[in-house]
Design a protein that fits this description.
- Strand 2 and strand 3 form a beta hairpin.
- This protein has five helices and nine strands; from the N terminus they run βββαββββαβαβαα.
- The chain is of the alpha+beta class.
- The protein has helices spanning about 55-60, 110-115, 140-145, 155-160, 165-175, and strands at about 10-15, 30-35, 40-45, 75, 80-90, 100, 105, 125-135, 150.
- It is globular and about 50 Å long.
């Protein structure tokens, strides 16, 4: 863990192949906040197929002069699926921006969506609808139960790797053969 106050903030959780919750099967989750009180993060490798950024823009007061280029929306998690968040590079900082580390920040205002639509938003961004959340000690218990592996992500993995390749790339970065892992936890 990072330190006594940030725990897993800025890390990624990699779902184990035996993930008991189907909603998180082969998920890569970026943790934006983790403390003794719980954790919050976003699934960063599962696109929303039935709803586009252009669809979202028509529901918001965003009126670009030109058609909006295709921008993917992601299933950030099962909670509050109508609430939007933008995980993004730190070259874009506004009043509502929460900086997670030197490379990644999060914003949730209409301003960032408008700026993205007009092509003046952050260099790297990932738009998530919904989020994941854990209560106090819930995530720690899931890690003890071998539900998750932990990695320190880089911006290429979070923003530039194809979604369908992120989970495997995260496994590869750990440097283990997933087929040789035991899916049972033990206590000495």
């Amino acid at each position: 863990m990072n330190n006594k106050t940030d725990f897993l903030t800025g890390k990624c959780l990699v779902a184990m192949p035996n993930m008991p919750d189907e909603r998180f099967s082969q998920s890569l989750i970026y943790i934006c906040s983790h403390s003794k009180d719980g954790a919050m993060g976003f699934v960063v490798n599962k696109k929303i197929k039935e709803f586009s950024f252009a669809d979202l823009a028509t529901q918001l007061p965003i009126n670009p002069l030109h058609p909006i280029a295709p921008i993917d929306l992601h299933q950030g998690g099962p909670l509050e699926k109508i609430r939007g968040f933008v995980l993004h590079s730190t070259d874009y900082i506004k009043n509502d921006t929460f900086v997670i580390d030197e490379n990644i920040a999060i914003s949730s205002s209409i301003d960032i969506l408008t700026d993205i639509a007009f092509g003046i938003g952050p260099k790297d961004n990932l738009i998530a609808l919904g989020y994941t959340s854990w209560s106090a000690e819930q995530l720690e218990n899931e890690i003890k139960n071998n539900d998750w592996l932990i990695i320190t992500p880089n911006t290429d993995l979070v923003f530039r790797t194809k979604d369908e390749e992120k989970w495997q790339k995260a496994i590869d970065e750990i440097g283990i053969d997933i087929n040789r892992l035991s899916y049972f936890s033990g206590h000495a």
